[in-house]
Write a structure and sequence with these properties.
- The chain is an alpha+beta fold.
- The strands form three sheets. Strands 1, 2, 3, 4, 5 and 6 form a six-stranded antiparallel beta sheet that branches. Strands 8-10-11-13-12 form a five-stranded mixed beta sheet, with helices on one face.
- The longest helix is centred in the first third of the chain and has 112 residues.
- InterPro entries: HATPase_dom, His_kinase_dom, PAS, PAS-assoc_C, Sig_transdc_His_kin_sub2_dim/P.
- It comes from Duganella violaceipulchra.
């Protein structure tokens, strides 16, 4: 082969390899650029994907928030509906309460207007807030004339200056009570005339504050009737006192007649009977004397009566001056139905002790005691330290008139008698209650 051909082939090969290398380098450069672009694109895609993931997460959060908001909105709607229902119920209740309050107010006004007494309601300052028709009729004022006025306008002028102090005392201690208990109260009409009143005060609590209700009644007729009754009672008391005085005098006359008659009696037994009758009559006369002297004609001061009767009996029967009397009494007030039988029993027991317990001038002590307890139990005791009763003495079977009277009157008083007797001691203890009914059962 010629040399030129061989060189040409080598040159062609040399250029071809360089071009190829360049081409390869270019390709590699382009590939690197493409790769870089691809990396950039990949990074961009990754960034896009990451942004998309964040957007998706944000979208999910937004979606959850929206769902929560929707749920909350639904709950708020339910709560709003429930609140609306509650408000409607409250409005219904308020409407019912207002209707009920209106009915109560109407009923109150109806009761106020139909009340038989004048009703005046005032506030804490004493201003008249409300009156009824009876107030207008009783005092002669129109309703509009009284509203806003102080309550003192309804009082006589002589009472007006001190009345505000009474109002303040009631306000400090409000309670239902009569005004001016035990005092003479008067009202004043529009024309200036006065009339006797009774007033009942009552505190009234309202939304506007504390008020005072005064129920006022005209008691002029009642006072007039009470005056007539008192006058009549005084007349009857005077008459009853005169009756007791005359009964006492008549009984004393009978006792004096028996005493005169006994002067003509020679039989000792008959004389004794006359003397015992005198003693019984004197005991009854003494009761009427005590009633005549007493301020209370229906009751007897039993302690005073016992002391007086035993003193009279001592002076009448105690021929033996060696006998000493001891009398102890607790305060006790009894009716005449109790005093009469008790006095007769005391007369018999004291008389028997004075006549038989101390024979032949024997010295001794007679003790009479009246005891009363807080329960109403009364006890009358007659004790002596004389010779005592016979051994075979039976109180339930004795036939002497005096002791039979004691048993009879004990039954009338529903009393219990305890008898104790021994040489040197005899006691009769009578226990009873002061009651309205003494009828034997």
């Amino acid at each position: 082969m010629p040399e030129s051909a061989t060189y040409g082939r080598e040159l062609g090969q040399k250029f071809s390899q360089e071009d190829y290398a360049k081409a390869v380098i270019n390709i590699l450069d382009d590939s690197a650029a493409e790769r870089e672009q691809l990396h950039d694109t990949q990074r961009a895609v990754i960034n896009i994907l990451e942004d998309a993931a964040e957007e998706r997460a944000l979208l999910e959060l937004t979606q959850k928030a929206v769902l929560n908001i929707l749920d909350d909105s639904a709950g708020e709607k339910i709560r709003l509906e429930e609140m609306q229902k509650a408000v409607l119920n409250i409005l219904d209740d308020l409407a019912g309460e207002m209707a009920e309050r209106s009915r109560l107010e109407e009923r109150f006004r109806s009761l106020l207007e139909t009340a038989p007494d004048a009703i005046v309601i005032v506030d804490g300052a004493g201003r008249i807030m409300l009156v009824n028709a009876q107030t207008e009729a009783l005092f002669g004022y129109g309703r509009r004339e009284l509203l806003g006025q102080t309550v003192e306008v309804l009082l006589p002028e002589r009472f007006r200056s001190k009345h505000p102090q009474h109002r303040l005392r009631f306000t400090a201690e409000p309670r239902v009570r009569p005004m001016g208990a035990d005092l003479e109260l008067y009202g004043r009409r529009k024309d200036g005339s006065e009339f006797a009143t009774e007033i009942l005060l009552s505190p009234v609590e309202t939304d506007e504050g504390a008020l005072v209700s005064a129920a006022i009644r005209d008691v002029t007729r009642t006072k007039h009737i009470e005056h007539q009754i008192r006058t009549s009672l005084k007349e009857k008391e005077a008459l009853l006192q005169e009756i007791h005085h005359r009964v006492k005098n008549n009984l004393q006359i009978i006792a004096s007649l028996l005493s005169l008659q006994s002067g003509y009696i020679s039989d000792p037994e008959t004389l004794r009977q006359f003397q015992e009758s005198q003693g019984r009559i004197r005991s009854m006369a003494l009761i009427h004397e005590k009633l005549y002297q007493s301020e209370t004609l229906a009751a007897v001061d039993l302690a005073d009566y016992v002391r007086s009767l035993t003193g009279i009996l001592m002076r009448s029967y105690a021929a033996n001056t060696q006998v000493r009397l001891e009398c102890e009494t607790d305060p006790a007030i009894v009716s005449i139905d109790t005093a009469v039988p008790l006095g007769l029993m005391l007369n018999e027991l004291v008389t028997n002790a004075l006549k038989y317990a101390f024979p032949e001038g024997r010295p001794g002590c007679l003790k009479v005691a009246l005891r009363s307890s807080a329960t109403g139990q009364l006890s009358l005791m007659v004790h002596d330290d004389g010779v005592g009763l016979p051994k075979d003495f039976q109180f339930d079977q004795v036939n002497s008139l005096g002791l039979r009277l004691v048993r009879m009157f004990a039954t009338q008083l529903r009393a219990k008698i305890a008898l104790h007797s021994a040489p040197g001691h005899t006691s009769f203890d009578i226990h009873f209650m002061e009651t309205a009914d003494k009828t034997p059962s």
